[in-house]
Amino acid sequence: MTDVDIDYLKSWTGRERSITDIITPRLASSLNAVLDIDKPVAAGKAAPVGIHWCLAPDIAPMSQIGPDGHPARGNFLPPVPFPRRMWAGGDLTFTGDFRIGDEVVRRSTIEDIVLKTGRSGEMIFVTVRHRYTTPRGEALNERQDLVFRKLETSGAAGQPAAAPPPQAAVHTRKIEATSVLLFRYSAITFNGHRIHYDEPYVKNEENYPQLIFHGPLQANLLLDLATELRNGEIPQNFAFRSVHPLFAGGRVSLNARQQESGTSLWMADQAGGVTMIANC
User: Fold this and answer.
1) How far apart (Å, rounded) are the C-alpha atoms in residues 70 and 60?
2) What distance in Å separates the CA atoms of residue 10 and residue 13, rounded to the nearest whole number?
3) 280 residues of the chain, pLDDT tens digit each
């Protein structure tokens, strides 16, 4: 029997907020650096793929930060009582483009809040809809799925290893999964979540063996690969889902296989197990 007041949490459904941000040359250069892209930036030119995940972050004073490094819940996001927070996945529908120098408005709506019970116990899923508008009109419609879990469930112990991919990759790109990469992505997205940079916290408080890759960083890397395979054209639709934590250390891989029905992509850990799947 759950002690979660799900009806109270559901009262946050429909809550909205709007934040305006600007795609500055510095922000574009920073994301290019994280993606290891050596490309000059200039006002009016196309922004790097995935720039929207760097825009309109939650900015709260230190006095309003929760123990995990995120802004305390109960304002826009509901006050979910489970402390462990992760990205479960999402999907993107591009209807326009982002350019360096654009003023972008992100309008966010909480669409759904659901309590589920899985292998690791109770979980609360919060679905957020983001709509991004530039001076030329709507550029992107994004669904973001967040999952919250209790800490009693171990971070890695007791979990099976990530499953191998169901098919062989045709395109593969290797990257070094360093703590510096994770820290730099946290910096450009103003993401204070301690699981990405605070090793004592992630090991002692959340019981994970190592620092954890950001969900949007994995998705950004896969989206960049998909765009490369389309000769620089961003997919109009891109859906992704996390299936296993990806930890820092060693080399990990981005993989893709193009088929008649579209492109299947996946992120794989140091042992080749799948951590995120995507399709476009």
Assistant:
1) 9
2) 5
3) 467 899 999 999 999 999 999 999 999 999 999 999 998 999 999 999 999 999 999 999 999 999 999 998 888 999 999 988 999 999 999 999 999 999 999 999 999 999 998 777 899 999 999 999 999 999 999 999 999 998 865 555 556 788 888 888 899 999 999 999 999 999 999 999 999 999 999 999 999 999 999 999 999 999 999 999 999 999 999 999 999 999 999 999 999 998 888 999 999 999 999 999 999 9
